[in-house]
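Bumping with the actual sequence this time:
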Amino acid sequence: MATSQKAPTSFWVALSAVFVIAADQWSKYWAVGALSDRSVDVFGTLRFHLTANTGFAFSTGQGLGPILGFVALVIVVVLWRMRSRFSSLVGTLALGFVLGGACGNLIDRALRTPGWGRGAVVDFIDLQFWPVFNVADMAIVVGVLLLSATMWIEQRRGMNGA
């Protein structure tokens, strides 16, 4: 039963991860080209403003790029191995969001100048009252929230015998 369940789960995790990676990398490509010499006000406090993040969340840990790259790679492997633990479509897609977001930022660390582990993550979505972030970061946050809700609901069902 685990084998038959694993194939569909793998497909949906991979599909949602690839979607996030593509959206993230395309948006970063756009941001680097369009925002290198200007910021764009969208509405309210939302603006697109290009920044480079060599640290991790909220630009903390500057200079720890090689360590962060390794940790991100380990997280990607662990997330992929967890895919068969989720049976609901929402949980499966959410895992793909987290995996895709982690891969999107890992790609930046690996491929952007000056190279592996030292590349900066491209951030450009600026609310002006929150640290600047990107599509990968949004996917990670949404994925973690959905995974948390899914696990909580599944645990509640298990406790109620449903």
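The tokens above came from a reply further down the thread. The first helix runs from residue 2 to 34.
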